[in-house]
Specification:
2 copies of one chain form a homodimer.
Chain A (H helix, E strand, L loop, with lengths): L7 H11 L17 H16 L3 E4 L5 E5 L9 E6 L12 H16 L8 E6 L12 H6 L5 H6 L8 H7 L15 E7 L4 H5 L4 E6 L1 E10 L3 E2 L11 H19 L4 E3 L3 E4 L5 E2 L2 E10 L2 H22 L2 E10 L2 E2 L2 H13 L5 E5 L4 H5 L5 E6 L15 H19 L1
Parallel strand pairs in A: 3-4, 3-5, 5-16, 6-15
Antiparallel strand pairs in A: 1-2, 2-4, 6-14, 6-16, 7-12, 7-13, 8-11, 9-12, 10-12
Helix pairs in contact in A: 1-3, 1-12, 3-12, 8-9, 10-12
């Protein structure tokens, strides 16, 4: 069984077939959640899973489970999957790769005539992207009991169409209640969506958890004045202050730890007139770190650095924390199983943290969970140019297969 | 005649009377160009000037000239004035002070029974502020031949009302063509609109010219990426780059010369999403300096500093010059006359440059011109809280009076 491998050509072919549904002229995919294209993607998946001999069940959130029975019919399954929906100008691999790698594992188990003790399931979660309906990760969120199904059903898109109605319209509001059941382990293969593996020339990322995150909103107030008549030395320019804060947030974060990140994304000035020193600047700060205490320290240092600049320049500063997501730490046994499977395949994995959220975040609330990353070109995703190499796709599926074998007995 | 002084109480009272027209609840003035309030202000000025025995003439731009004859009827006049229109939430002194100080000079000449050789005129220029109709300094601009009257007439406000129609409506489209005639000298008293005189405890600014100015527009492009999955060391963040440029523009300008200023007023980011590293940042740069070669050097250094940051960070940078106003240098004889008048009054003046534009800028194109500044509270103007001290108002009017006496013979 140690010699068993997935069929890389078949997986690559399936990825190409799926990418035809909602293909964009620029080579990407637009397969918004619960759209006709999403429906077509689901049907293709279901047809392939049936061909592979799986039992299909669909729950009330439209999550699709394709089950390959184990020798112990009642044993808790080992589950693997991701999502088929994409961003409006999305790529061909974000989510899809995890679903089709899970399907390829089932196909490869069939090819090898392998009987696992536990059932093995491939799963498609509904609306991971959150582009058409917010929030993201709806299917796994309701499944894990974090989101309320009735509120999710009532959520509407820009045209006023609701999740509940659209699920019915595409025929994927299943009879099975969307709620957690005993699961032995959940695995999710995914493209990294960052540049680390590619830059280090590594093939497999052994994901140990998902970063914690805080969102802060800063307001800097100074003294509105005439750009021509106000000498430099008497100015209290909030934009100059905010600019120094942006630089300080960067420096502070780099000095803290190599895996901490900070981003100023929103940034607006008032009055924003070419010949006027501004009165007020508002900006956001997104800080992330894998460790909760370090994340708190990061926030503390960012506040201190900004406060010092504000004080030195005679500005007023308010910074408010508007969101906090604690880090997710994946179960050690699952992380170890992924790492051992990768090593045994001669693909030593790099332990790393996921910077982005995934369905695995909610699954980790209800069962032992882990993730496998493969490189993506230039670290780009959520973009029509998203790309991967076939050999990496194959390698990731092989690691998934052997992790499943370790866990499914 | 060396003992002649203006009547500070009368001037102060006139300022208070004028401030009742278009008074705002917060203590400022809203007397937009060619509005009913502007009309009321003009009529009050004209009535006062007639009481002072002046001949009134109104030109086709609504500029009002109140003339006190000289003993040489045909001699070129010494002219002084400013404007009565205000910003929408403007103050009680910007412009008004220069008009009423000029009127006070005429009244004081009457009080002292002084016969000047040359005629002395007090003038009100139309639409200096440019709030309701753009551009600013319309009346003096047409008068000096810099702006075209037909184009100015066709200019409309936000409600579609034109300058030409509004001039007729308020009864101030005069018969006299708005065009330059021989003028011996033009003087304009004005509040400083900056903090320098107040901070240095000086009463009189002897204005030697108006700063040159360049407006630049910068675009910084980087690499749009995920705020969570992109490690700090591989980012090409255009906002971080632009922030460092804002700081560098400030440092470069401070290092160049104490009287150079630089302001980043407009600043926008794209896509400007809280969890996304931006793709592009656009900002404006307003640089000003009294000397043309130094202004060019300032631009060169700003470009070099921004270019270095952009290069170091792997960003793309475009900077375009969109406007250039060369410095105005006032006529040495007029500047000397103001300085000598101030010294003789025991009010040693500070030679300084005007950071803002004034009607005097256009007058300097057609005749020897100078300005007299008095302090304003905290350097604030274009604001309802704009304020001055009565003793400063009196001192400025006295300097204006004695400069007129020197020039009018």
């Amino acid at each position: 069984m140690a010699e068993l491998r997935t069929n890389g050509d078949r997986l690559w072919q399936s990825l190409a077939e799926m990418a035809k549904l909602g293909a964009t002229p620029a080579g990407g995919n637009k397969r918004l959640a619960l759209s006709d294209e999403d429906k077509a993607g689901r049907e293709l998946f279901v047809s392939w899973a049936r061909e592979a001999g799986c039992e299909i069940s669909i729950d009330s959130m439209g999550n699709i489970f394709a089950r390959r029975p184990g020798t112990q019919a009642e044993a808790e399954p080992v589950m693997s999957g991701s999502h088929l929906d994409t961003q409006p100008t999305g790529g061909r691999f974000d989510g899809v790769y995890g679903v089709l790698a899970a399907l390829e594992v089932l196909r490869s188990l069939n090819d090898g005539d392998v009987q696992t003790a536990r059932p093995v399931e491939a799963v498609v979660w509904t609306n991971e992207e959150g582009s058409r309906f917010q929030p993201a990760m709806m299917g796994s969120g309701v499944f894990a009991g974090v989101l309320d199904q009735d509120r999710v059903y009532a959520t509407v898109d820009q045209d006023g169409k609701s999740v509940g109605d659209e699920l019915e319209r595409i025929g994927y509001k299943g009879a099975l209640p969307a709620q957690a059941r005993p699961i032995h382990a959940y695995l999710e293969a995914h493209i990294e969506q960052g540049p680390v593996l590619e830059e280090e020339g590594r093939t497999i990322g052994v994901v140990t958890g998902i970063q914690g995150m805080k969102w802060l909103k800063a307001t800097v107030r100074g003294m509105n004045a005439h750009a021509g008549t106000t000498p430099m030395e008497v100015r209290r320019d909030p934009l100059l202050g905010a600019a120094r804060m942006v630089d300080a947030i960067d420096r502070t974060t780099r000095a803290l730890r190599p895996d901490a990140v900070a981003t100023v994304g929103e940034f607006s000035v008032g009055p924003g007139s070419i010949n006027v020193i501004n009165q007020e600047v508002r900006f956001s700060i997104d800080i992330r770190c894998p460790d909760e205490p370090v994340l708190e320290e990061q926030k503390k240092r960012v506040l201190a650095a900004c406060g010092e600049i504000s004080g030195d320049m005679g500005l007023e500063l308010d910074i408010e924390e508007i969101w906090h997501v604690p880090p997710t730490v994946f179960h050690g046994n699952i992380v170890d199983a992924v790492e051992e499977a990768a090593s045994a395949l001669g693909l030593p994995g790099k332990r790393m943290i996921s910077g982005a959220g995934h369905d695995a975040k909610y699954l980790a609330e209800i069962c032992p969970t882990g993730m496998i990353f493969i490189p993506c070109k230039d670290g780009i995703s959520h973009n029509e140019t998203e790309d991967i190499l076939q050999e990496h796709a194959t390698a990731g599926a092989d690691v998934l297969l052997h992790t499943v074998l370790r866990l499914a007995g």
